[in-house]
């Protein structure tokens, strides 16, 4: 008798745990679908400050992409691209996505940039002439 009661309590607890697990499953699925809905990089929504971006560019980007962002050899040219393209690429490098063979070179330089930094540096890049 005692054994059956214990058994009942055990299965009861298992069911509760199961229900809690199922509830958690659905809420994390909700979070995942929300993420898909807001896949647009957050930096795209921020107004960029080109003056702050210029400082950041000099420190973090110029050595490779050049003072006027025209690139050189294996460092791609940045001017001439729309802001949305630049933001999307930098965010994806930051997140660890692999593009060309030199992805690691680029990725390590943008790992610590905030969304605001990316908006700022983009505002600076698109202010440069493409000639
Ligand atoms: C150490 C050199 C280096 C630094 C510093 C660097 N990059 Fe890059 N960047 C690269 C290389 C190399 C690539 C191409 C990587 C590849 O093979 O995918 C690249 C690619 C890019 C691209 C994609 C270009 C395209 O045509 O799609 C953007 C945008 C970019 N960099 C922006 C920046 C910005 C903004 C900074 C500064 C915050 C920066 N990079 C700093 C080397 C660098």
TrEMBL record:
InterPro entries: Cyt_c-like_dom (IPR009056), Cyt_c-like_dom_sf (IPR036909), Cytochrome_c_Oxidase_Subunit (IPR050597)
Keywords carried by this UniProt record: Electron transport, Heme, Iron, Metal-binding, Signal, Transport
Signal peptide stretch: 1-22
Domain Cytochrome c stretches: 48-129
Cited Pfam families: Cytochrom_C
SUPFAM superfamilies: Cytochrome c
Gene Ontology molecular function: any one: metal ion binding
Name of protein: Cytochrome c, class I
